Amino acid sequence: MSFENIKLVIKNNIATLTLNRPEKLNSFTQAMHEEIKAAFIEIENQSVRAMVITGEGRAFCAGQDLGDRDIDAEEEFDAGDSLEQNYNPLIRKMHNAPFPIICAVNGVAAGAGANLALACDIVVAARSAKFIQAFAKIGLIPDAGGTWSLPRKVGLARAIGLSMLAEPLSAEKACEWGLIWQVVDDDKLSQEVERMALHLAHQPTVALANIKQALRASASNSMSEQLDLERDLQSASAKTDDFREGVAAFLEKRKPVFTGK
């Protein structure tokens, strides 16, 4: 399928999805949402073991393109419908993806764009990037999973400050606060993310997916529930070909060759 608002490249078991509306800072439209849905279907039908999400041009994503919506200031508008139809299914799909997702934040990430980035498993940002929870500026609350991810990553006090003040947060401060994984110089971003994606694409994919599931569940599980989940996921992980290969490689003192199975 050809795309106009995104780019999709699948190579070496890595899917790279690039938001491609640089003239509008890669802000979301309904057409972009439809293309992203189609892209994930294509990804699910191929042997993808890692994914990268990034933006074209000088921004990662400026959030929702308000010009794409039929909004009349004099009439009631149901913003929740767009969440239910577009953003929420996307965030759930990313959380449940059976492979790691890296976000390469190449510039400003605002509104839903910021929270799309935070929904990824590993976030690497260019030094010039900024994160902005811009919702309060137009009388809305953080969405696309923002109210879930922010307090878990940075704590309630910082989550409230970011959400209510809607001030830009630098990439370096975001990293210092534990909101993202890494900051790199702008001209090193693509190289670093490619290196990381290649590494992850050669790791035991099922185990990585189970790591995602276990860590994301830990915030709401009791200790007993988490121990039960660890037991079940460890049992499933130990039944994979990659586990057997990992043990064999360790005993034979060689580098393992994982297949993702």
Write the layout of secondary structure elements.
Elements: E1 6-11, E2 14-19, H1 30-44, E3 50-55, E4 59-61, H2 79-96, E5 101-105, E6 108-110, H3 112-118, E7 122-126, E8 130-132, H4 146-154, H5 156-165, E9 169-170, H6 171-176, E10 182-184, H7 189-200, H8 205-217, H9 223-237, H10 241-251
Parallel strand pairs: 2-3, 3-5, 4-6, 5-7, 6-8, 7-10
Antiparallel strand pairs: 1-2, 8-9
Structural features, described:
The chain is α/β, with parallel strands linked by helices and 261 residues long. It folds into 2 domains: 6-200, 2-enoyl-CoA Hydratase, Chain A, domain 1; 205-251, Lyase 2-enoyl-coa Hydratase, Chain  A, domain 2. It is built from 10 helices and 10 strands. Strands 1-2-3-5-7-10 form a 6-stranded mixed sheet, with helices on both faces. Strands 4-6-8-9 form a 4-stranded mixed sheet. Strand 1 (6-11) and strand 2 form a beta hairpin. The two termini are 28 Å apart. The model has no long low-confidence stretch (mean pLDDT 94).
Order of helices and strands: EEHEEHEEHEEHHEHEHHHH
Number of strands: 10
The N- to C-terminal Cα distance equals: 28 Å
Percent of residues in helices comes to 40-55%
The CATH class name of the largest domain reads Alpha Beta
CATH evolutionary superfamily of the largest domain: 2-enoyl-CoA Hydratase, Chain A, domain 1
Q: What share of the residues does DSSP label as strand, in percent?
A: 15-25%
Structure at a glance:
This protein has helices spanning 30-44, 79-96, 112-118, 146-154, 156-165, 171-176, 189-200, 205-217, 223-237, 241-251, and strands at residues 6-11, 14-19, 50-55, 59-61, 101-105, 108-110, 122-126, 130-132, 169-170, 182-184.
